[in-house]
Amino acid sequence: MDLFDEARAYLDRLPHGTASHPECVVRAAVFESLRSELPALDLRQTSEALSPTLAAYLRNGPSDEWIPEVWTNALLEVWFVAIAARSEERFRERMRAVNRELFESPLYRAVTRVLSLSLVIMGLARSWGFSRRGTRATARMGPRHASPRAGHISVEHPAWVYGERQLIAFEEAFLAVGDIVKVSSGRVRRSTQGAEETTFTLEWMDG
């Protein structure tokens, strides 16, 4: 089994591989539980397949509080193969769980402790910089009395910095906040998707 084919396919879309978009960084702690679940990786093999810097991170962990988004996208692709065995259902389940843990942590507790999902969505967009730099999120809400309710989160990013697995992880993150505030019939879709902007629409029923 090639553990790195999905990660290589992601990196091949970028202009400079693992060195692409250095302005886009994420807090290492957000991904550490997933990184620690990977099997022990051979440093030389991983270096040859990906890059020495990415291999060192995957094997030994972060050396800084902030790490490149490109690295964590590659991590998700490796995790998808090595742990989820290419099962999207299993991948989504873990992303939902890890995001619930994140949003219940002290970093986001002030955002998610409110009882209204619409307020949480707006708060997540405003607090995007808590865990990410170099990308930007904005939110807008649908009509207040519509059924189902709807919220839209648009993420602006450099071309293709977010791979498919990270986009799925965002979908599960938005569903996770619905779990926390206990809305019903929550669902999410990508209402628009382009090279430099992706909009997610979350729909739900109050109460």
Describe what this molecule looks like in 3D.
With 207 residues, the chain is an alpha+beta fold. 43% of the residues lie in helices and 20% in strands. A hairpin with a 3-residue loop joins strand 6 (184-193) and strand 7. It has nine helices and seven strands; from the N terminus they run αβαααβααααβββαββ. The mean pLDDT is 92. It is elongated. The chain has two domains: 5-82, no CATH class; 113-205, Gyrase A, domain 2 (2-Layer Sandwich). It has a four-stranded antiparallel sheet, with helices on one face. It has helices at residues 5-12, 32-36, 43-49, 52-60, 69-82, 88-103, 109-112, 117-126, 164-180, and strands at 25-27, 66-68, 132-133, 136-141, 149-156, 184-193, 197-205.
How many β-strands, per DSSP? 7
Distance between the termini: 46 Å
> Could you list the spans in which at least 5 consecutive residues all have pLDDT below 50?
none
Mean pLDDT: 92
Strand order of the largest sheet: 4-5-7-6
Q: Work out the strand percent.
A: 15-25%
CATH architecture of the largest domain: 2-Layer Sandwich
